[in-house]
Amino acid sequence: MNKKFILGIYDDEDVLLTAIENIRAGGTKIYDVFSPFPVHGIDDVLGIKRSRLPIVAFFAGLTGMSFALWMQIWMMGFDWPMIIGGKPHIALPSFIPVTFELTVLFSAFGMVITFFIVSKLKPSMKVNVFDKRSTDDKFVMAIEVKEGETDVAALNDLLRSNGAIEVNEKEVVK
Fold first, then answer.
1. All domains of the chain in start order, with CATH
2. Where do the TM regions start and end (predicted)?
3. Please, which pLDDT band fits residue 2 given cuts at 50, 70 and 90?
4. Beta bridge pairs of residue 40
């Protein structure tokens, strides 16, 4: 199935942010915006909700901390108790480095795995690049064209009146 998009090419991030606000205020749904670098405030302007990834990071870190403490307490206190340097079997202050490291490790892996699952990213995924200049110095706004619903000429005029230096059409295989 092929999808058709109208691409507005911008060369200034401030013009892009203003264009996004104006186009969304007019009721046009923006498919996505591609940028060569992160643009401060673009998520708010596009209406993208805050990520819940920090919640996942917290619970993955909590799991890592619990696992580290359980592992060390079990090993040093019950499975193979040894007195090292005169410390008691369960010496929590000496467990802090390993606990910290496993907290960070579980948190990092938990976020990466969750991100890949939620984004449906996999090694065999084919990525459609709308315009190669979006990886270098241009900003690309993609608006999906729905057959019979979208007036392409009016959309071209809308993008140009909102600062697009170039307007293109692109068909993408989905």
1. 2-49+126-173 (3.30.70.920), 53-119 (no CATH)
2. 55-75, 95-118
3. confident
4. none
DSSP classification of residue 118: H
Q: Rounded CA gap, 69 and 90, in Å?
A: 10
Terminal CA-to-CA distance of the chain, rounded, Å? 6
pLDDT digits (tens, 9 = 90+) for 109-166: 999 999 999 988 888 877 778 888 888 889 999 999 988 788 888 889 999 999 999 9
CA distance 168 to 6: 6
**Helix or strand or coil: residue 152?**
helix
State the amino acid at position 40 in one-letter form.
H
Cβ neighbours for 130, distance < 8 A, ≥ 6 positions apart = 5, 7, 34, 140, 142, 170, 172
Joined together, the tokens standing for residue 84 give 């090292």
Q: Are 42 and 20 in contact (CB under 8 A)?
A: yes
d(C-alpha 34, C-alpha 37), whole Å? 9
pLDDT in tens, 27-59: 889 999 999 999 999 999 999 998 999 999 999
Three-state DSSP class for residue 50: coil
Instruction: Indicate the length of the chain as a whole number.
Output: 174
